[in-house]
Design goal:
By secondary structure, the protein is mainly α. 70% of the residues lie in helices and 3% in strands. The chain has helices at residues 3-38, 48-54, 58-68, 75-97, 108-143, 164-197, 213-224, and strands at 99-101, 104-106. Residues 1-14 have a biased composition (Polar residues).
Length: 227
Amino acid sequence: MSNAAATIAPNASENKGDALPKATREEARRAKEARARFSKEKKSGIELADVLALAPNDDQITKIQAAFAVEIGDLDELIGLGSNMIRDQFETLRDVLVTLYRGEDDMRGMKLHLDRIVDGAIRSAHGAACYYEARRQIAKDEADSFTNANRDEDRMGIDGQSNRVERLREIAAQHGAKAHALACVARGACAGYAEVMGEEWKPYVAQQNGRSVSEQAAALRAEALDL
């Protein structure tokens, strides 16, 4: 083997071996960035609106089902599931959690319990929605040749299987169905809560009562100056 051949062959082999790990590292990086963008909790807590902003809506999930043939849950059944989860617990636990105080029902125990139940449904749906949005963003970035190091991403593989972009789109579609289903359950839970409690559910916000007088004064001055 000539010196030229000996020099070229190892380099070609090395480059070929680095292709997959590089693509894998790039996908992992984009997934991390997407999760960072969409999974940060607001100071006011996670609300139903935050879930609905990320999960596919009813029209989108219908299009996803038609395009990717993924299984989606029945809209009314999923919303009913969330609503019944709250209403059934309200009825079953009413005699235990609602006490009589000065001739009136004290609902604080019931409210605290149902607040936590709805919060759990919201957080579960939000986690699924964030993961779906991350996978959707990865598929979008992969299809964009300007942000993708692999310029032949749309070329069919030698095995005849779907190309890399299509596989990523299919993964995003599958997680879209999951996010939509859990978002529907969360919608039902919020509706059921409003029905039995007579008020809209809101996430718990810790009260900031531990600040010193000087800290409070500094905050007021900063607010006055719009700092």
